[in-house]
């Protein structure tokens, strides 16, 4: 197996910088769309053979150094008792607004409630045995809470912030329940074969640094500390965290995912040599010419300055209209320009 991704997670020397893409199994690939045309998004997530197929596609097509489970961060929220639909973005029919709503939520039994996720992981470990490592993932408690309270995506997140400030006991009870669920979900993924876990806090950057430390950090720290991670590195990605890297670092992940709003070299100076980093090319660079893509890849690699513990990635998910050949060229550039 190509282990340079896992080696980089642990800060070990590698022959060249490993690279994978957030949302690398997705709509930009015609091969994915061919599978997706046969079913709904949720059906695809819940059909292990198909989910495994689209997980493996970008490994073979792009030549990336890791596969990431095809699923959705809201998958384990549905069996908590919240009806989920995609139209096309996620929508919950009855958002959480009161303590009574929180009390109704149950902690799923992962083997019974999301068996399709665990079966997909088992299939993938067999299929990827001679290829690349497998990343499992989940949403951070705050990001999951945002969707559960708002009911869908939001521009201002007024409902979750109102709950934080005016009903802290409801907010705390909800976050405690989500944290427990997430811990059990991610540990089930590790048991089923995930070799690394990425925690996505897509909306963690919507709070001020002080509020992040007060309302998010304790729960993410509890989650990370509760994972069975002796041999399983944890990547913690908080979008919009450029102004609060030292606070986010306190959560205790092994690798910090970085979006494109921070110089990677500056981030490494702040975080210190003991913590790896992942990132952080602006996803829209993949619309550019090959000359610009290569230039920007080199810039990110130069910012890292050959320090161990760097995993190349985009600063967020690949966009659905990116030409696949540009993504493949980016991967080739990373490997070629970082070759030891």
Question: What does the model show?
Answer:
The protein is an alpha/beta fold and 340 residues long. It has one domain (4-338): TIM Barrel, CATH 3.20.20. It is 47% helix and 10% strand. The chain is built from 16 helices and nine strands. Strands 1-4-5-6-7-8-9 form a seven-stranded parallel beta sheet. α13 (245-249) links the parallel β6 and β7. It starts with a helix and ends with a helix. The model has no long low-confidence stretch (mean pLDDT 97).
Topology overview:
Elements: H1 4-9, H2 30-36, H3 41-45, H4 48-62, E1 67-68, E2 84-86, E3 90-92, H5 99-104, H6 110-113, H7 115-127, E4 134-139, H8 141-150, H9 158-166, H10 168-192, E5 196-201, H11 209-215, H12 217-225, E6 234-238, H13 245-249, E7 255-257, H14 264-271, E8 276-278, H15 290-304, E9 310-311, H16 324-338
Parallel strand pairs: 1-4, 4-5, 5-6, 6-7, 7-8, 8-9
Antiparallel strand pairs: 2-3
Helix pairs in contact: 4-7, 8-10, 9-10, 10-12, 14-15, 15-16
């Amino acid at each position: 197996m190509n282990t340079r991704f896992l080696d980089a997670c642990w800060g070990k020397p590698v022959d060249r910088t490993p690279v994978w893409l957030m949302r690398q199994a997705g709509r930009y690939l015609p091969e994915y769309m061919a599978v997706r045309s046969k079913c709904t998004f949720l059906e695809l997530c819940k059909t292990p053979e198909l989910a495994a197929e689209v997980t493996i596609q970008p490994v073979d097509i792009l030549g990336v150094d890791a596969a990431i489970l095809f699923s959705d961060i809201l998958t384990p929220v549905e069996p908590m008792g919240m009806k989920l639909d995609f139209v096309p973005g996620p929508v919950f029919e009855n958002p959480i607004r009161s303590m009574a709503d929180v009390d109704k939520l149950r902690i799923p039994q992962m083997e019974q409630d999301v068996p399709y996720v665990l079966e997909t992981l088992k299939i993938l470990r067999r299929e990827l045995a001679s290829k690349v490592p497998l990343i499992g993932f989940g949403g951070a408690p705050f990001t999951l809470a945002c969707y559960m309270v708002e009911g869908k995506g939001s521009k201002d997140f007024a409902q979750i912030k109102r709950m934080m400030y005016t009903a802290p006991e409801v907010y705390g009870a909800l976050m405690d329940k989500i944290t427990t669920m997430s811990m059990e979900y991610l540990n089930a993924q590790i048991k089923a074969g995930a070799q690394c876990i990425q925690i996505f806090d897509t909306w963690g950057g919507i709070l001020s640094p002080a509020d992040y430390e007060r309302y998010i950090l304790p729960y993410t720290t509890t989650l990370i500390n509760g994972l069975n991670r002796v041999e399983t590195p944890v990547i913690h990605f908080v979008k919009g965290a450029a102004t609060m890297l030292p606070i986010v670092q306190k959560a205790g992940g092994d690798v910090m995912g970085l979006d494109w709003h921070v110089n990677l070299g500056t981030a490494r100076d702040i975080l210190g040599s003991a913590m790896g980093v992942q990132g952080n090319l602006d996803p829209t660079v993949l619309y550019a010419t090959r000359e610009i893509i290569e230039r920007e890849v080199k810039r990110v690699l130069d910012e890292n300055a050959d320090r161990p513990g760097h995993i190349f990635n985009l600063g967020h998910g690949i966009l659905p209209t990116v030409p696949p050949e540009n993504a493949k060229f980016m991967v080739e550039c990373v490997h070629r320009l970082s070759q030891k």
